[in-house]
Amino acid sequence: VPAGGVSLRRCSTRVSLEDVNRPVIDRIIRVDHAGEYGANRIYAGQMAVLGRSSVGPVIQQMWNQEKDHLKKFNELMVTYRVRPTVLLPFWNVAGFVLGAGSALLGKKGAMACTVAVEESISDHYNSQIRTLMEEDPEKYKELLEVIKQFRDDEREHHDIGLEHDAEAAPAYSVLKTAIQLGCKAAIYLSERI
């Protein structure tokens, strides 16, 4: 503390933790952290298979954004005192296997996986945005800004997947449906466990 007794710590306009709807915030931050963790593992699996291919730099660019998303949710978990899902060890393995497995189908398979996952996640983020807007848009302003930005990034990844021939992957509609069902199950479980 400098002379005069004034602290040099940054002031925050953040809402006090007592003012937030704990069940809603806990669920949102826990599941978003798990989702970003899983996305990182998916891209790690894709890079393990396709990292040296022509699509490697595209996957790496998307993965870098996902790393930033995960870092932010790690920070938000501390700020809001939210525990992570106990399923992280499972998502660690499942995400990598999904990423590597889809990449073994080639570039189109990896991009089909990206489209399916990112569409699911952006839809989920939209649902969270609606929930927070109904609760109190001013109270949750900072969290809303984060979720909206990440939703836009996920939509961009979705579009990149389409631009890189995701729909030409073998059994695209079956693959996309299966991955999206898995995403829905992962979201449901990670919100609660």
TrEMBL record:
GO cellular component, one term: nucleus
Pathway stated in the Swiss-Prot or TrEMBL entry: Cofactor biosynthesis; ubiquinone biosynthesis
MF GO annotations: 3-demethoxyubiquinol 3-hydroxylase activity; metal ion binding
CDD domains: DMQH (cd01042)
Keywords: Iron, Membrane, Metal-binding, Monooxygenase, Oxidoreductase, Ubiquinone biosynthesis
Top-level taxonomic group: Eukaryota
InterPro entries documented for this protein: Ferritin-like_SF, Ubq_synth_Coq7
UniProt record, GO biological process: determination of adult lifespan; regulation of gene expression; regulation of reactive oxygen species metabolic process; ubiquinone biosynthetic process
Pfam family, one: COQ7
HAMAP family named among the record's database cross-references: COQ7 (MF_01658)
Name under which the protein is recorded: COQ7 protein
